[in-house]
């Protein structure tokens, strides 16, 4: 068995049927020398390994001004746009363009995300991918909604009202906060499980990468950090994690002194300490995403943790408790200050605690989590 299998990243006997359209097959050809695991990509159509962009840039209209920008990160920017299809109809799209960053091989980031998107083209757990346009120019998705869970959380106590506004049909009869919480938890869990069913580890599950889509339900976006278990792409343990939502095996906590544990939102003051995170280079597993799911639902389910500042402080406090979320709740959080009624009343607390267990061997997997 491979190291990835031993670490729980591969389900023995599981294989994935990759989504490769006929156009791409024709371009690649039947060269006998081409290995199934070959990662060579060239922009010369005569070379083995060439993958043709699925879309024509001439059919794409991108609103690259400030009014069309819907998101920007360290390496990329997303814009609204329209795509003209074969029947001359226009489809509303979201377009991602990678930025030139000195000292970083941004072209490889583009290629990695394109590969993951092609694998997940038929996956119901992600925003629907339409294709690449041009040579390392644009990645294009159907616009199925722009409201993220992060956007909804910015509403604080109105988070579920914001969710109902964004996806009234997808939430159906869920009218109470408890019903909405469970509906979102179930849909998000199912989407991550669907991604895992294609042997992809998202590696960056967090509210800003969770779309509340009336057409698709709760789905994931941004596959720039995704790891492919089958091909090994992204499985080298490169440090890609959010310090709030990242699984603890991805980094080690080094005490640097100073600071104070707790002190916000009813947390008890404890010994003075501050910490620095250093990447471990741990090989990714599906349990990375399980931990991130648990932290995301903890933030959604406890009102006092819905601000980014609050969940950030909570994660530091949890780490200071050895990653034990139950100990954190019992010893650091002051009784009667934080409202646990939603996670307790829905029965979600136990599942969240098991998803966020600091030991991967004891952590609940996404495909066995129930809400």
User: How big a fraction of the residues is strand?
Assistant: 15-25%
> Which residues sit in consecutive blocks of at least 5 with pLDDT less than 50?
1-15, 18-42
Order of helices and strands: HHEEEEHEEHHHHEEEEEEHHHHH
> Main β-sheet: number of strands, strand sense, barrel status?
6 strands, antiparallel
Number of strands: 12
Shape: globular
Radius of gyration (CA) equals: 21 Å
Beginning-to-end CA distance, first to last residue: 33 Å
Structural class: alpha+beta
Share in helix? 25-40%
Mean pLDDT: 85
Number of helices: 12
Topology:
Layout (H helix, E strand, L loop, with lengths): L2 H4 L15 H7 L31 E3 L6 E4 L3 E9 L5 E9 L7 H14 L9 E5 L4 E5 L6 H5 L5 H8 L1 H4 L5 H20 L3 E2 L8 E4 L3 E4 L6 E2 L22 E5 L19 E5 L6 H16 L6 H13 L4 H8 L8 H5 L2 H8 L16
Antiparallel strand pairs: 1-3, 2-3, 3-4, 4-6, 5-6, 7-10, 8-9, 11-12
Description of the molecule:
The chain has 371 residues and is of the alpha+beta class. The chain contains 12 helices and 12 strands. The strands form 4 sheets. Strands 1, 2, 3, 4, 5 and 6 form a 6-stranded antiparallel β-sheet that branches. A hairpin with a 3-residue loop joins strand 2 (69-72) and strand 3 (76-84).
């Amino acid at each position: 068995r491979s190291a990835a299998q031993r670490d729980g990243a591969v389900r023995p006997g599981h294989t994935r049927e990759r989504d490769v359209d006929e156009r791409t097959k024709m371009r690649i050809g039947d060269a006998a020398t081409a290995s199934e695991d070959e990662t060579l990509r060239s922009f010369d159509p005569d070379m083995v390994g060439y993958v043709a962009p699925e879309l024509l840039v001439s059919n794409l209209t991108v609103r690259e001004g400030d009014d069309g920008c819907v998101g920007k990160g360290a390496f990329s920017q997303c814009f609204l746009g329209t795509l003209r299809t074969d029947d001359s109809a226009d489809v509303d799209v979201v377009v991602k363009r990678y930025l030139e960053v000195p000292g970083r091989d941004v072209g490889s980031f583009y290629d990695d995300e394109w590969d993951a998107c092609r694998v997940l083209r038929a996956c119901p757990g992600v925003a629907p991918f339409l294709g690449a346009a041009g040579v390392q120019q644009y990645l294009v998705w159907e616009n199925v909604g722009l409201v993220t869970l992060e956007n909804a959380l910015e509403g604080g106590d109105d988070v579920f009202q914001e969710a109902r506004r964004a996806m009234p049909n997808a939430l159906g009869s869920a009218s109470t906060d408890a019903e909405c919480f469970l509906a979102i938890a179930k849909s998000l869990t199912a989407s991550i499980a669907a991604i895992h069913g294609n042997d992809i580890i998202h590696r960056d599950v967090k509210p800003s990468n969770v779309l509340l889509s009336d057409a698709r339900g709760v789905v994931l976006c941004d596959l720039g950090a995704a790891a492919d278990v089958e091909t090994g792409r992204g499985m080298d343990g490169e440090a890609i994690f959010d310090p709030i939502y990242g699984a603890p095996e991805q980094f080690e906590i080094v005490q640097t002194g100073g600071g104070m544990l707790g002190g916000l939102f009813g947390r008890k003051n404890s010994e003075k300490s501050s910490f620095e995170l250093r990447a471990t280079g741990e090989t990714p597993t599906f349990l990375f995403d399980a931990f991130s799911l648990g932290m995301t639902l903890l933030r959604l389910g406890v009102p006092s943790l819905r601000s980014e500042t609050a969940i950030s402080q909570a994660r530091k406090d949890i780490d200071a408790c050895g990653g034990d979320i139950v100990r954190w709740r019992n010893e650091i959080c002051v009784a009667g200050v934080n409202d646990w009624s939603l996670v307790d009343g829905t029965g979600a607390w136990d599942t969240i605690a098991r998803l966020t267990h600091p030991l991967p061997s004891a952590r609940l997997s996404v495909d066995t989590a129930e809400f």
